[in-house]
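thought: user wants a sequence for this fold. calling inverse folding tool.
action: design(structure=
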C-alpha cells in the first residue's frame, strides 16, 4: 500500500456524515489494486454484491471502467448501511466504502490535494479560498484518506468536472471515500435534505441527465471561480488526440508527478468516444516527458526551479477535541481552562475523564452485552500527554486533576484526625488489655479456657484507622500493593514526568512489577504476593488508573525499542498507555488571557466528583466480594454498540492492517464502554442505564484518540518523509553544500540519516518535491557518481514544515 494512503476504518459510528449521504443509494465498496509499473495503487470500486465496475486481467493489470450509463447500473448501488454490511462481512477483502457521484443527482465533490500540514493548517491561500467557498456553499468537508488533503461533498446546480493544480471538482463518474474525519459540517444540509428525495424520484436516472436543484444555494462551480481549466464532459472522435495532449500538458504544467500522469490520462480517456487505444494514451503521456525533464535540468537559474510549497507532513495532523464530545457538566470547565491557558481542550479533558473514572472505581461497572454477564468493565483508563518541555503540561495537569486531589487531601485530613484519637487512646487500651489478661489468667486457673479466650478477644485492639487513598505518585511495587490492599476501590497514579516511572519498569529485575501493573489496568483479578521476606500481601482485584506527561523523544524511543528484538516487549503496555494519549501541536502564537476562573463550571465538576466519591462500594451478602452496581446500554445504544464492536472486530482481523494498530484498536472494545459509563454518570449521577447520546460521545472521543494514536505511533516509526525533513533542515542551516552525494551525507553521521536507505529515501522525497535535483558528473575517472543540486529557493526559506 502506498505510504500516502492511510488506512480508513469505516464504521457505522461515523454518524457525523450527513444523513442524506448515508441514506442515499449511492454507496460502493472498494479495494486497492496494485498496477504494474505504478507506485500508487488503484482504488477500484465494486458493487456491494461483488460485481466489479472494473475488471482485472489475467496479467495482473487492471482495466478501469467507471461508467454508469444505465438505470440498471445505478439501481445496483447500495445505501451506506448496506455497503457497511458488505464491508464487514468480508474482512480483509475490501479497503473501504465510498459514495458514487451520478449525473442528474446534483451532488458533487471537491478534492484538494496536499493542502494541509501536520497541524491541519492550510499551506496556501488558494486552498483556503476554495475551502471557505465550499463551506459557505453548504458542503460537508473532511480530511481525505491521505491525511494531507480535503474532501468536500455537497449540492451544485449543473456541476461540471474541473481540474486545476492540486484541485479537482466533479459531479459524475467518480466515487469519493468518506472518512468521517470532519473539518466542517454546515447545518445547511438539514435545510435541503428533501432535495435528494426529489431528485431520486423526479430526475431522469441516466448518466447523461442533468437536473438543477432548486433552493440548493451557491454552487461549488461558481464558488471555485472561473480561472480553472475545465475538462470536457465528452470528446468526439476528431478531437481525441488534441484534447488528450492538452490535458496531459495541463497536468504536467500544474506540477503533477510523472508517475501519476498516466493514471490521470486513463481516467480522461473514459470521456473519449470511442476511447483511444491504451498504447496511444501511453504514447501521448510519454511523448514529451523526457524533453520536459531535460529542459528543466539544463536550466540552472531559480526561475527554472519549481516554487516550494512545503514537504508532506511526516506525522498525521493532530485533531483538536470538540468540547461537544464532553457531557455538559464537564464541558464548561474544560473550555474555561483551555481558553485561559491557551491550550487544546484535550489536555484538560483527558486527565479529567480518567480521574473521574478512577473515583468511580469499582463502585460502578458497565455490562457491554445485553445478556452476557461475563463481560464487565470498570471505568479504569490510562493515558498521557506528549509534548515538548515548557509547553504547560504540568500547569494544565494540576488544573485538571485538582478535583481528585481535593478528595485525596480531604481523606488525608480525615485520617490524620482519626489517628490523633487512636494515639490518644493508646494508654487506655493498654490498661484495658492488662486488666483483661489478669482476668483471663484467673479463668484459666479455674479451667475455663473458653471464657478466658472471650475476655481477651473483647479487649483486643483493632487495627489502626486505614487511610483512604485516591492518588499515588511514586511508590515501589510492594508499597503500591499495600496501598491497594487497603483501598479496594483502587487509586490513580499521577506522574508529572511519566518517563521516570516507565524507566523503573524497564530496569532489569522489574519484570514482575510491569506484569503487576498490567493486571492493575483491568482490576478484575485478585493479586497476592508470596515472595520471600514478605508475610504475604493480598489485594482484592486491585485497580489503578494512570495519567502523566511524556516528552516526544521518550515516546519515540519506547515505540522504536518495542520493535527491537533485544529491547522490545510486546506485552501491550504501550497500547494501554496510549489508549487516551494525546500529542497535540500548540499554536505558534498565542495571547494572554487574564480573567477569573469560571467558579460555576468548577463547582459543577466538583459536585460530580463528590457524587462519585459518595457512591457505596457494595459487596455480595454471601461471599462478601465486591459487587459493583451495573449499568447496561439502553436498547438504541445497545444496537449502536453491537454494530460498532462488529466494525472494530472486522478491522482488527483485516490482515492488511499493521499489527500495532490492530493491538491498539482491539482494546477499543473496553475503552468505548468505559468512556460511555463515565459520560453517562457525568450526565446524570443517578443514571440507571447508558443512553444513546452518552455512547455516541464515547465513540466520538475514541475516534478522536485514535487519530492521536496514529500520530504517536508514526513518531517512532522510520519514514522517508521524516528523513527528508531532517535532511532539509541541515540544508537550510548551511551544513549541506550544493552538489552533494549520498557518500557525502554518510560521512557526516547525521541524526536519522545514518544508513544508506535513510539517506536515499530522504533524497528521493526532496527530489519529488522540487527541493533538489539529480545530475551526473562524468569527470570522476570511473563510473559517474550521482550528485544533487539544491533548489536556490531553499535558501530563502527559514524553516521546515514539520
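)
observation: tool returned 802 residues.
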Amino acid at each position: 500500500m502506498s505510504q500516502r494512503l492511510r488506512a480508513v476504518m469505516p464504521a457505522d459510528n461515523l454518524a457525523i456524515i450527513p444523513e442524506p449521504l448515508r441514506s442515499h443509494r449511492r454507496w460502493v465498496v472498494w479495494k486497492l489494486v496494485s498496477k504494474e509499473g505504478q507506485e500508487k495503487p488503484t482504488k477500484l470500486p465494486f458493487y456491494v454484491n461483488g460485481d466489479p465496475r472494473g475488471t482485472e486481467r489475467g496479467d495482473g493489470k487492471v482495466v478501469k471502467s467507471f461508467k454508469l450509463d444505465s438505470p440498471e447500473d445505478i439501481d445496483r448501488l447500495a445505501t451506506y448501511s448496506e455497503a457497511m454490511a458488505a464491508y464487514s462481512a468480508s474482512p480483509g477483502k475490501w479497503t473501504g466504502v465510498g459514495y458514487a457521484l451520478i449525473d442528474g443527482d446534483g451532488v458533487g465533490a471537491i478534492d484538494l490535494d496536499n493542502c494541509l500540514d501536520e497541524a491541519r493548517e492550510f499551506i496556501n491561500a488558494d486552498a483556503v479560498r476554495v475551502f471557505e467557498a465550499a463551506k459557505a456553499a453548504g458542503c460537508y468537508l473532511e480530511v481525505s484518506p491521505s491525511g494531507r488533503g480535503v474532501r468536500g461533498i455537497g449540492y451544485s446546480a449543473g456541476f461540471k468536472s474541473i481540474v486545476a493544480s492540486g484541485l479537482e471538482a466533479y459531479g459524475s463518474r467518480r466515487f469519493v471515500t468518506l472518512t468521517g474525519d470532519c473539518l466542517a459540517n454546515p447545518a445547511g444540509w438539514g435545510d435541503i435534505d428533501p432535495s435528494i428525495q426529489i431528485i431520486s424520484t423526479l430526475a431522469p436516472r441516466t448518466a447523461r441527465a442533468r437536473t438543477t436543484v432548486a433552493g440548493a444555494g451557491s454552487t461549488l462551480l461558481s464558488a471555485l471561480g472561473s480561472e480553472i481549466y475545465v475538462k470536457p464532459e465528452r470528446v468526439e472522435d476528431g478531437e481525441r488526440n488534441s484534447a488528450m495532449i492538452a490535458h496531459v500538458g495541463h497536468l504536467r504544467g500544474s506540477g503533477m508527478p510523472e508517475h501519476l500522469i498516466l493514471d490521470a490520462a486513463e481516467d480522461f480517456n473514459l470521456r473519449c468516444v470511442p476511447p483511444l487505444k491504451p498504447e496511444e494514451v501511453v504514447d501521448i503521456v510519454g511523448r514529451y516527458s523526457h524533453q520536459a525533464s531535460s529542459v528543466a535540468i539544463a536550466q540552472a537559474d531559480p526561475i527554472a526551479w519549481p516554487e516550494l510549497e512545503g514537504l508532506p507532513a511526516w506525522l498525521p495532523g493532530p485533531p483538536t477535541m470538540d468540547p461537544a464530545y464532553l457531557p455538559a457538566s464537564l464541558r464548561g470547565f474544560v473550555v474555561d481552562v483551555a481558553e485561559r491557558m491557551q491550550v487544546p481542550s484535550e489536555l484538560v479533558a483527558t486527565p479529567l475523564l480518567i480521574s473521574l473514572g478512577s473515583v468511580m472505581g469499582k463502585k460502578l461497572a458497565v455490562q457491554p452485552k445485553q445478556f452476557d454477564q461475563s463481560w464487565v468493565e470498570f471505568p479504569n483508563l490510562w493515558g498521557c500527554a506528549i509534548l515538548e518541555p515548557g509547553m504547560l503540561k504540568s500547569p494544565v495537569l494540576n488544573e485538571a486533576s485538582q478535583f481528585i486531589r481535593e478528595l485525596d487531601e480531604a481523606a488525608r485530613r480525615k485520617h490524620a484526625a482519626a489517628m490523633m484519637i487512636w494515639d490518644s487512646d493508646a494508654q487506655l487500651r493498654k490498661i484495658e488489655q492488662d486488666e483483661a489478661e489478669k482476668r483471663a489468667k484467673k479463668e484459666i486457673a479455674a479451667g475455663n479456657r473458653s471464657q478466658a479466650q472471650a475476655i481477651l478477644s473483647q479487649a483486643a485492639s483493632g487495627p489502626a484507622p486505614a487511610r483512604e487513598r485516591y492518588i499515588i505518585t511514586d511508590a515501589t511495587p510492594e508499597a503500591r500493593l499495600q496501598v491497594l490492599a487497603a483501598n479496594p476501590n483502587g487509586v490513580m497514579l499521577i506522574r508529572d514526568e511519566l518517563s521516570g516511572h516507565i524507566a523503573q519498569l524497564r530496569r532489569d529485575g522489574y519484570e514482575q512489577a510491569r506484569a503487576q501493573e498490567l493486571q492493575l489496568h483491568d482490576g478484575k483479578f485478585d493479586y497476592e504476593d508470596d515472595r520471600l521476606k514478605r508475610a504475604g500481601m493480598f489485594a482484592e482485584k486491585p485497580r489503578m488508573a494512570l495519567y502523566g506527561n511524556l516528552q516526544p523523544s521518550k515516546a519515540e524511543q519506547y515505540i522504536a525499542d518495542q520493535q527491537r528484538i533485544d529491547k522490545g516487549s510486546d506485552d501491550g503496555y504501550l497500547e494501554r498507555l496510549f489508549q487516551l494519549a494525546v500529542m497535540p501541536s500548540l499554536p505558534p502564537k498565542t495571547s494572554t488571557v487574564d480573567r477569573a476562573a469560571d467558579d460555576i463550571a468548577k463547582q459543577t465538576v466538583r459536585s460530580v466528583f463528590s457524587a462519585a466519591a459518595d457512591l457505596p462500594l457494595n459487596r455480595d451478602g454471601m461471599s462478601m466480594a465486591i459487587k459493583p452496581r451495573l449499568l447496561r446500554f439502553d436498547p438504541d445504544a445497545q444496537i449502536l454498540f453491537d454494530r460498532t464492536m462488529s466494525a472494530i472486530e472486522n478491522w482488527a482481523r483485516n490482515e492488511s492492517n499493521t499489527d500495532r494498530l490492530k493491538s491498539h484498536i482491539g482494546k477499543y472494545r473496553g475503552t468505548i464502554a468505559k468512556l460511555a459509563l463515565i459520560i453517562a454518570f457525568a450526565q446524570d449521577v443517578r443514571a440507571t442505564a447508558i443512553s444513546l447520546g452518552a455512547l455516541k460521545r464515547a465513540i466520538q472521543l475514541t475516534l478522536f484518540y485514535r487519530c492521536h494514536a496514529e500520530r504517536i505511533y508514526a513518531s517512532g516509526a522510520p519514514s522517508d518523509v521524516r528523513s527528508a525533513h531532517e535532511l532539509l533542515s541541515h540544508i537550510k542551516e548551511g551544513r549541506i553544500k550544493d552538489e552533494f552525494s549520498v557518500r557525502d551525507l554518510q560521512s557526516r553521521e547525521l541524526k536519522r540519516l545514518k544508513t544508506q536507505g535513510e539517506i536515499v529515501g530522504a533524497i528521493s522525497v526532496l527530489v519529488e518535491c522540487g527541493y533538489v535535483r539529480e545530475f551526473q558528473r562524468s569527470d570522476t575517472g570511473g563510473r559517474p557518481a550521482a550528485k544533487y543540486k539544491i533548489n536556490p529557493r531553499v535558501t530563502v526559506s527559514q524553516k521546515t514544515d514539520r
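thought: summarizing for user.
answer: Here is the designed sequence. DSSP finds 30 helices and 24 strands in the chain.
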